[in-house]
Structure formats: structure tokens, C-alpha cells
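WARN no homologs supplied; continuing
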Amino acid sequence: MSELLEFPQDWQRALVIVAHPDDPEYGMAAAVAEWIAAGKHVSYVLATRGEAGIAGLAPEESAPLRSMEQENACARVGVTDLDFLDHPDGRIEEGIALRRDFAREIRRVRPDLILTLNHRDEWGPGQWNSADHRAVGRAVLDAVGDADNEWIFPELLAEGLPRHKARWVAIMSPAPTHAQAVSQQSIDKAVASLAEHQQYLMALSDESVVDQARKQTERVTAGGRVAFELYG
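OK structure emitted
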């Protein structure tokens, strides 16, 4: 990734749209911490509450727990605007309803930059991407155009949400084009943010929560930067 371009800095508001609690923390949290420390505003929108994400824990118990863990994770990096859309975890349907929900959030937040996860079938050879990630990623890309077109979802105008054109979309992608430099302080905040997903991480591995969080964060911040595929 030595030839990645520098991530643009001439923006003020960003919107992260992902599928589940922990999705921001598994990749972009260090960049979010860096941007917020620089005075930028970053909002999070999660399509689900991650209620199907912990084996052995029923969805009605998991949903409030994972929502709380996400709120705590946000606090670690300075995010104060968090919204859940309550689509069903593991069964997100790509289509008009999802695009409308995302277009609504884009018009509400009015970001310069939108960030999401990999929309492709794979993360790499032999690494199949999840159905929710694929559906959300593609719907986000479509909703960016929907938010800037008054005729696709005219009901949003009736809700008092005028069209909005975002300047960029950045994707946590296996084919990155740009990189955001991050400080050690931002990396440490990202580790703490991911570690807030304690019950989720404990269900994944016998390895300590902090060790899991540190390893994952160091993986995505190798070289002191977070890489994105940038559109726009």
C-alpha cells in the first residue's frame, strides 16, 4: 500500500453507515478518532443492533447489550451522534426501503464524506463477505445518488429533508486508493473503542478482549495509517 494517495482533509462533516455494532471499530475507528481530534464532526448510522451476533444469547437480550456497547465505543473516539435503523441482523434486504433509509440519514446529517464497509462479494481470495455487509455497502453507494435527487424519494422532501450532495464516499475495501495518517493516540482510542464490545469479543475467542482489540487495530493501522477506497 506504499503508493496510496493522501486522504482529503478539506471537509467538516462525515457520516459512517454500516451494518452492525463493532463494524466501525473493526476498521475505521482510528481515522474517526483522528478526525474528531482535529475538530471534524462524525456521525454513525447502524442498520441493525447486532442482535443475531452472539451465539447462545437470544436476540432480545443481545440487542440492548450490543447497542450499549456501541454507545460506549462511540464515546471512546468522541462520536456523539449515533442512530440505529433496526433492520434485522443477518437478514438486511438490499433494495428500495434500505436505500430510502440511508438517503434519509444522508439528508439529515448532510455530510461532506460518507464511509461504509466493503460492498464486494469477497474481502480477498477465500474470504467471503457477509450478506449484510454486501447489502449495506451497495445500498450506501446507491443512496448517495438518491440523496441528491429530489424525484427518487419525494417523500423525504415532505419530511423537510432537501436534497444533499456528498463530495466523497470512502470504503473499508480490499482495494484501497487513499490513506489517512493516524497518531498513536488515535490508535489507542481505537483499541479502547473496539474493546468496549466486550461480550461480543468474549464470544468470539478465548483470547482476552484487549488483546483481540489491539491485534485487530494494529492490523488495520499498520504503518500509522488507515486505508480506504475513495469515490468522488
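The radius of gyration is 17 Å.
OK
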